[in-house]
């Protein structure tokens, strides 16, 4: 299964992915989103759809 990856250089720290993820894969760390539970990812794409700057990819 693919795992979510946050491009920290692109992330604006809005928290949209944290709110959108149904399985709590993300947390805010300072002013950036961080993947904290990648194995929980179900590849639903909610985080990708929620991110306004396309900072999240599944890899």
TrEMBL record:
Xref: Gene3D superfamilies: 3.30.70.20
Keyword 4Fe-4S: yes
4Fe-4S ferredoxin-type domain sequence ranges: 2-31, 32-59
Cofactor dependence: [4Fe-4S] cluster
Superkingdom in the source lineage: Bacteria
GO molecular function terms attached to this record: 4 iron, 4 sulfur cluster binding; electron transfer activity; metal ion binding
Pfam families recorded: Fer4_10
Keyword annotations from UniProtKB, A to Z: 4Fe-4S, Electron transport, Iron, Iron-sulfur, Metal-binding, Repeat, Transport
Role description: Ferredoxins are iron-sulfur proteins that transfer electrons in a wide variety of metabolic reactions.
Name by which UniProt lists this protein: Ferredoxin
